Amino acid sequence: MPQALAQDAIVTTARVTVEPIVETVPLTGTVTAPRHSALSVAVAGLVTAVHADIGDRVEAGAVLLEMDTELEHLTLDRLAAATRAARAAYDEARRQLRVGEALVQRRGIPENEVEARAAAVRIAKAEMERLQAEEAFQLARLARHRLVAPYAGIVSRRMANVGEWLTPGTAVLEMVDAGRLFLDVRVPQEVFPRIAPDMQATVRFDALPDKNIVGSVQALIPVSDPESRAAIMRVVFDAASHRVVPGMSAQAILRLDTGTRDIIVPRDALVRFPDGRVAVWIVERTNGEIRVSERLIRPGITVNGSIQVLSGLEAGMEIVTRGNESLREGQAVTIRSDS
């Protein structure tokens, strides 16, 4: 008996079970940012300083570029002086009107003189307001000699240097909003109807192979590409906790319930032959002996690391999951205890 046991193959077994069929669907996509901007200056001018470079993270409102403001400051000083003179003239016109109104009561001056002085007040006021508006315009123009970040993000491109003359409409910096990133993936048309908003997705990055990030489906864009016959699915995930940047490639892995139950076996139980046959080894217990028998099966889809079996097995059967590489038909085996 000890000699017979020494010839037995040592195997690990499991019972065939019936479980819900949940299909694992990997979809490939690219990390995108919600905003990508080509920044331009609002007025023409000479660059005196560039405070941002490629790769810099900047906060909203940060000064990215400055242009020469000497002539603009001189213009502002001239307008400010003109505004002060206009205000003084307006104040004097009002004083003259008050004096005229007092004199007309004593018939010291004719009434048409008072009317002329009232008109002079209106003219002086209009002139003062015109100059105030010009001064405000110049202040706004002066502020536009600085380019500020419209939102927090990363500078992705720089196209301007100190000493260059810039004109409105020409991009000088590009930046992306990296605060909240998305993964946009193409979805085959046969999968698209099975996806729902807020469905959980596991995100795996090619650059971070050891990390699985939990995300969720934010939006489904049913605009089918006539060439690829695919639509777009947008997945949101926590990008702040990982070194993720726009442009990275990744997979969104969905687990889609098929609504059916079927035979499930561990992946390691399958033995695949070069001619395409797929088999498992069935454990048979007879008269105290434990032997194995080969059973051809028809595998289905992968279900959470296991394999669906479409035909060839029944629930409750005992099959070999480890040690099945070199078994022979009718060979005696010893079952290894997991404990």
Automatic annotation (TrEMBL):
Keywords: Coiled coil. Residues 183-254 form the CusB-like beta-barrel domain. One of its GO terms (molecular function) is efflux transmembrane transporter activity. GO terms for cellular component: efflux pump complex. SUPFAM superfamilies: HlyD-like secretion proteins. Residues 263-323 form the Multidrug resistance protein MdtA-like C-terminal permuted SH3 domain. It comes from the Bacteria. Residues 76-134 form a coiled coil. Pfam families: Beta-barrel_RND_2, RND-MFP_C. PANTHER family: HLYD FAMILY OF SECRETION PROTEINS (PTHR30469:SF15), MULTIDRUG RESISTANCE PROTEIN MDTA (PTHR30469). Belongs to the membrane fusion protein (MFP) (TC 8.A.1) family. This is RND family efflux transporter MFP subunit.
